[in-house]
Design a protein that fits this description.
By secondary structure, this protein is of the alpha/beta class. Helix content is 47%, strand content 15%.
């Protein structure tokens, strides 16, 4: 099967071929570490994790770089407002990012460079641009003249004379430029007010690198002059990725990246995320509401990356049920295999058809909706077969389990759920007390005949790996091998 991606550079689906056979060099724009990353950021990071995993499943060795932007206007402003060093702002945020990364089960990338540790390479890149006539100085700041670079704006299909002073480039207004459209490569510190929390020596005086320059320098240092894939959110298309192309190709004269892949924004309850609206959720925010990390991972991966995904709590509840269905299906197959059942030709054919459909969907620009549809058709059909057959009949458990291993290699949700359930098995009193309180809320909802809320609470318990069993007079909570019986209140 042929792997195809929608290339933002050409705006069409293209068959993917790596520069070096069986190896992919990929650069991912990482977070700007002035504040904790939210679930919208992690939608992009999780999709990039899915891309990485699928490329490996297809047989590629993946070499990935994800930078940490630990110096830019936002991090510097935060340091000045708080009267602390840049590191005192960025270090705690980086640790929170890495904690959330681990919580959601993302694979570690090969390189995670920090901008502040690569300033020398950025200065050398500016010097190379200056030698080629693609950088000029104004009072200690260096700028890229976009009019001198043919093809500027190709990524967003804009001619240079139609581009105004918009986007992140608006942070350059306090610096004089020959042309308002030009972007900054090096920000001289002479004219800045307030404490200088981030300055480095350069041939042009004290200053700091421009945001766009950072990614170009680090990408080429670790991966070479031309990348196979460059990824990021759609908000990075212009000006960030557009400017990366200009300064990188301006130095090398070669394509900076053969494939540009972008992830569309996440909505929350149909609205754009905003702190003012109170809907800008972080990973801990979702976990504190009783949802499992595996559920959040599944939901954020469940929509196509080029389509807006609407995050809702109803959707989270549905994701929890889908995860439980997958987990129960795997358990049922394992139990069948333990009984010594063997694979039949018929079941092998069904599993192979599912695997073929799964791969075909993922090969087509990572169409996760179609891929998940194939998985759940197998779940449905196999369960129906199990329900209708006699005990110990051959069901193809080994082949189906093998396919689930393939699915897990790509989506990474079941192993995360395994960890959650294993942790629940060692549940401490704090977890048990939380579960009991959830049961109280569930009983109140049922008394009010608010069965939708009652079901949502049950789903949140199960999403945490807590099994709820309603008995005649009590409810049993099972935390792995441990169980707690809770009497139901009578009013």
């Amino acid at each position: 099967m042929t792997l195809r991606f929608h290339n933002s550079l050409t705006r069409k689906l293209e068959s993917f071929e790596s520069i070096e056979p069986d190896k992919v060099r990929m650069y991912t724009c990482g977070p700007t570490v002035y504040d904790r990353a939210h679930i919208g950021n992690f939608r992009a990071f999780l999709w990039e994790d899915l891309l990485r995993r699928y490329l490996r499943w297809k047989g590629f060795e993946v070499e990935q770089v994800m930078n940490l932007t630990d110096v830019d206007d936002k991090t510097i402003e935060a340091a000045r407002e708080r009267g602390v060093s840049l590191d005192e702002v960025t270090e705690p945020v980086i640790q929170m990012f890495l904690d959330d990364w681990t919580t959601l089960g993302l694979e570690e990338v090969e390189y995670r460079p920090r901008a502040t540790e690569h300033v020398d390479g950025m200065i050398r890149l500016i010097e190379s641009l200056q030698e080629k006539g693609l950088a000029y100085e104004v009072e200690g700041s260096m700028y890229f003249p976009i009019a001198r670079f043919p093809g500027y704006g190709q990524l967003v299909n804009l001619a240079p004379d139609t581009i105004g002073n918009v986007g992140r480039v608006s942070g350059d207004e306090e610096y004089d430029k020959d042309d308002p459209r030009d972007f900054v490569l090096w920000k001289g510190s002479q004219g800045e007010e307030g404490p200088k929390v981030a300055v480095w020596e350069s041939p042009w005086g004290l200053g700091r690198p421009g945001w766009h320059l950072e990614c170009s320098a680090m990408a080429m240092q670790y991966l070479g002059e031309t990348l196979d894939i460059h990824t990021g959110g759609v908000d990075n298309l212009f000006p960030h990725h557009t400017n990366e192309i200009a300064q990188s190709e301006g130095v090398t004269g070669r394509p900076f990246a053969n494939f540009w892949l972008h992830v569309t924004h996440l909505l929350v309850e149909g609205r754009k995320m905003s702190k003012s609206l109170g809907n800008c959720f972080t990973v801990p925010d979702i976990l504190e509401k009783g949802y499992a990390a595996s559920t959040l991972r599944y939901l954020l991966l469940s929509g196509h990356h080029r389509t807006q995904l609407n995050f809702t709590f109803d959707g989270l509840n549905a994701a929890a049920k889908a995860m439980q269905r997958l987990y129960d299906f795997r358990q049922r197959l394992r139990e069948a295999l333990a009984l010594g059942v063997e694979t039949t030709v018929d079941m092998r054919a069904a599993v192979e058809a599912t695997k073929s459909d799964f791969e075909a969907a993922m090969d087509e620009d990572l169409n996760v909706s179609e891929a998940l549809g194939a998985v759940f058709r197998l779940v449905r059909d196999t369960n129906q077969f199990l329900d209708s057959t006699v005990p110990n009949a051959p069901i193809g458990a080994k082949d189906a389990l093998s396919f689930l291993d393939d699915f897990e290699d790509v989506f990474g949700v079941l192993s995360l759920m395994d960890e959650e359930i294993s942790g629940a098995g060692e549940a401490g009193e704090e977890v048990i007390e939380w579960a009991k309180n959830q049961l109280v809320d569930r009983e109140r909802a049922r008394e009010k005949r608010d069965f939708e809320q009652a079901d949502a609470i049950r789903a949140s318990l199960e999403a945490k790996g807590v099994v709820v069993e309603d008995l005649a007079e009590t409810t049993r909570l099972r935390f792995g091998s441990r169980s707690v019986v809770v009497p139901r209140s009578r009013r």
